[in-house]
Amino acid sequence: MKYQFKSTNPTLQEVLSMVDDEFFRVKETGPHKIVPVESHSDMPTFTKVTEDTFENVFDNCRKYILSVHDQLGENIQLMDHMRRYYQYHRKYTFGEMTAYFNEADKKIYVQGLVDQQKLEYIYVLALYELNEDDADDDSSDDDSEDNVKIPAWMVPTIK
Q1: 21 is in which domain, residue-wise?
Q2: Of 1, 26, 56, 72, which has the fewest beta carbons less than 10 angstroms from its beta carbon?
Q3: 9-29, pLDDT tens digit by residue?
Q4: What is the DSSP letter of 157?
Q5: Global pTM?
Q6: H/E element holding 78?
Q7: What distance in Å separates the CA atoms of residue 87 and residue 1, rounded to the nearest whole number?
Q8: Beta-carbon-side half-sphere exposure of residue 9 (alpha carbons within 13 Å)
Q9: Is 23 domain-assigned?
Q10: How many domains does the chain have?
Q11: CB-hemisphere CA count at 13 Å for 87?
Q12: Residue 46 falls inside a structural domain
């Protein structure tokens, strides 16, 4: 008897192809500068936070941030802050680069030892809500180049 396993999780490309809505869009933003978090003691925290906030993340929810990677394209594992807390105390995976989105201050925190405190910028792929400024409006008042009338006195004579 052969067993057939069905794929339960869609790939990132499948998710991106399903997104076709006028209220949000998938966009990769960056580079976002990250700075070290101040320690309350003299011990290093190995935690960095983005300087800028992510205001327009869809529904202000961490599940709509799809991926985080560094300037070389290396993926940073994205998880919630409680899973990251317990990940830090594991024997073999405590130093891996992980990131989480804090919904209260709308910033991304990056933790880990692998970067040796050299990571400065991250890129974020997320679902963003469209603002009125970002929306493509077909009924705009701007005239196209073909509809502009040029007065005769502005057209030079060709000799």
Answers
A1: 12-132
A2: 1
A3: 566 666 666 665 566 677 888
A4: P
A5: 0.66
A6: strand 75-78
A7: 39
A8: 2
A9: yes
A10: 1
A11: 18
A12: yes
